[in-house]
Design a protein that fits this description.
- The chain is of the alpha/beta class and about 300 residues long.
- It folds into 2 domains: about 110 residues, 2,3-Dihydroxybiphenyl 1,2-Dioxygenase, domain 1 (Roll); about 160 residues, Roll (2,3-Dihydroxybiphenyl 1,2-Dioxygenase, domain 1).
- It has 6 helices and 17 strands.
- Strands 14-15-16-13-9-12-11-10-17 form a 9-stranded mixed β-sheet.
- Strand 10 and strand 11 form a beta hairpin.
- The longest helix has 13 residues.
- It is globular and about 55 Å long.
- The protein starts with a strand and ends with a helix.
- About 45% of the residues are buried.
- Homotetramer.
- GO terms for molecular function: catechol 2,3-dioxygenase activity; ferrous iron binding.
- Its EC number is 1.13.11.2.
- Belongs to the extradiol ring-cleavage dioxygenase family.
Length: about 300
């Protein structure tokens, strides 16, 4: 019984056409469905039906979807989440285009998390037979290969960490705590496979999105992404820079609605025997932006 990965992020955007340009032309995602004011998108190296849903009207997170290893696991997750005290309902095949039956959980942080196993397989752009390393017809914009992780905010990081650990079997790769003599949990970076994080959360408002991130191959792909942001006048939050936390490389930027996105490269490998790394608030600027060792307060305050 395990969670495999972040499958989809569903966000609201103020202007669907403007955001469609951003996710399609700048990031390079492909449209797989366009129905009822919702645009379903997929990156070139993803196999399942979609990984991003844009819905017109407002800004911020509608829900997150995480894919589980087997359909049979869903019963057990339902029992565990209910026992934890979370609100859980069954979701039906077709509630999300291409996605089968699953669970819809209201997290202690008030975010909606969907768990599912069955999802329509579209395959990636290079196929499974003697594949090219990348689509030979070329990529649009950055050509992001896949989604990587999300970071959300919660009033109670301890409770949310307990939920992800006890109900979903995630482990903490990194903790951000109040200080050397203050073990108050300010943030947690948690994984379900071998990435440094599949979800992270920091203390803040309930139910908000700090960012969702796309994987890019390496530092030079990240710099090229920066060039494309400039060509397309995409507002940059910060980067290119190195994260102390997770050791990843990053650029944060905004979609036209103001949702924060990230391109993320590198980072170490975790696993079941990984021991949690701890950062203290007095080193938080270095933890988040190791290169510049400074943080604009808006980086922490602006959420959607
Ligand atoms: C990351 C990451 C915050 C730190 C963010 C770190 C919001 O996004 O990918 O490691 O404090
Ligand atoms: Fe991130």
């Amino acid at each position: 019984m395990s969670v495999i990965r972040l499958g989809y992020v569903h966000v609201r955007v103020t202007d669907l056409a403007a955001s469609a340009d951003h996710y399609r032309d700048t990031l390079g995602m492909d449209t797989v469905a366009d129905e009822d004011g919702r645009l379903y998108l997929k990156s070139w190296d993803e196999h399942d039906h979609h990984s991003v849903v844009l819905e017109e009207g407002g800004v911020g997170l509608v829900k997150l979807g995480y894919k589980v290893a087997e359909s049979a696991d869903l019963d057990e997750y339902e029992t565990k989440a209910s026992a934890f005290g979370a609100r859980v309902e069954r979701m039906s095949k077709g509630d999300n285009i291409g996605v089968g039956d699953g669970l819809r959980i209201t997290l202690p942080s008030e975010h909606t998390l969907e768990l599912y196993h069955d999802v329509e397989y579209l395959g990636n752009s290079t196929g499974n037979w003697n594949p090219d390393p990348w689509p030979r017809e070329g990529l649009r914009g950055i050509g992001v290969p896949r989604l990587d992780h999300t970071l959300i905010t919660t009033e109670d990081p301890v409770l949310l960490e307990r939920f992800f650990a006890e109900v979903l079997g995630f482990r903490a790769a990194e903790h951000l705590v109040g200080g050397p003599d203050n073990d108050e949990l300010v943030g947690s970076w948690m994984f379900c496979g071998e990435q440094p994080h599949d979800i992270a959360f920091v203390k803040g408002e309930q139910g908000k999105l700090h960012h969702f991130a796309y994987h890019v191959d390496d530092w030079s792909s990240l710099l090229r992404a920066g060039d494309i942001f400039s060509m397309h006048d995409v507002p940059i939050d910060f980067g290119p820079a190195r994260h102390g936390i997770t050791r990843g490389e990053t650029i944060y930027f905004f979609d036209p609605a103001g949702n924060r996105n990230e391109v993320f490269a590198g980072g170490y490998r975790t696993g079941p025997d990984f021991r949690t790394v701890t950062w203290t608030m007095d080193s938080a600027a270095r933890g988040i932006n190791y290169t510049h060792r400074e943080l604009d307060p808006d980086f922490l305050n602006v959420v959607t």
